[in-house]
Amino acid sequence: KGNVIDGKAVAAKIREETAAKVAELKAKYSRVPGLAVVIVGERKDSQTYVRMKRKACEEVGISSFGADLPETATQEEVLEVVRGFNSNPDVHGILVQLPLPKHIDEQAVLGAISVEKDVDGFHPLNIGRLAMKGREPLFAPCTPVGCMELLERCNITIKGKRAVVVGRSNIVGMPAALLLNKRDATVTICHSATKDMESIVRQADIIIAAAGQPQLVKGSWVKPGAAIIDVGTNPVDDPTKAAGYRLVGDANFEECKAVAGAITPVPGGVGPMTIAILLRNTLVSGERFITGKLQCPVAEDMKAGCSK
Ligand code: NAD
Q1: Fold match between domain 30-125+273-294 and domain 142-263
Q2: What is the pTM of this model?
Q3: Which CATH superfamily hosts domain 30-125+273-294?
Q4: Radius of gyration of the chain, Cα coordinates, nearest whole angstrom
Q5: Separation of CA 259 and ligand 1 centre (Å)
Q6: Is this complex's ipTM strictly greater than 0.95?
Q7: Which residue minimizes the CA distance to atom 22 of ligand 1?
């Protein structure tokens, strides 16, 4: 496949490694990690993601817990569900599928998840630690961790390299930039107000494209040999497909592939990594709880978040 990174194969490997470790825990302690997935409302895309996550848990032997709340659920009802999972000893990871309906304060809900069960890595204490020198989060967000893992498993050096992240969302762009910074890349973040983006992107050894704009990054923007991790998952009309659409990334794949040293396809690149990392984060959390090695980081800055 030349310079095309096979995200599906890497994700399958991580799932295998996770399943083996879950089996080990089960043999030794007769317990398995548990993940609770909370969904509010009837968004079709969210329902699909939640179904995929629950099925993926089963496949690696993680037990899956669910709460499906109606669109009309109140913030207090959602918080109540989160608190229930916080105190359930069989649940080691809690994920609230985003976006939440508009009348619910997303940050309030994410902040109510126990930091030590925050396998999505969106709790402000985990994000804060990701941004701090000398601190590590208990968990970092799954999609950006998946991007790092693809770079690392493809032997692409991060330290000392110039990385450009296109997009600065809480879920992808910003944590991707923070993770690259932790790995000693020199990081530039581009966003919708960035001027002359192409000259900035052209300096990059590593490009993380996460703007949600189909084929935004052109081949002519790419330094020869650069690595491109394309997070974008954009549906575009395609009457030749049964569904009437196909998915394209934030990079123009054919143009960029001709110049890049390595590139992830869409689909089959970053997409499969997200769930694989979620499973691995849940395993890590389950291991900490089940083996009794859960130590909330001793630092004072975590204390508040560790109290139930
Ligand atoms: P978002 O809409 O929350 O954020 C987009 C970011 O891109 C913003 O910071 C915005 O400033 C920036 N941006 C938008 N247009 C731009 C432009 N023309 N030039 C420069 N910057 C621009 O989106 P998100 O949740 O971060 O998701 C980004 C993309 O990644 C989407 O296509 C989404 O579907 C995809 N995604 C994929 C996965 C996965 O697992 N593969 C997971 C999450 C998101």
Answers
A1: yes
A2: 0.95
A3: Leucine Dehydrogenase, chain A, domain 1 (3.40.50.10860)
A4: 19
A5: 23
A6: yes
A7: 192
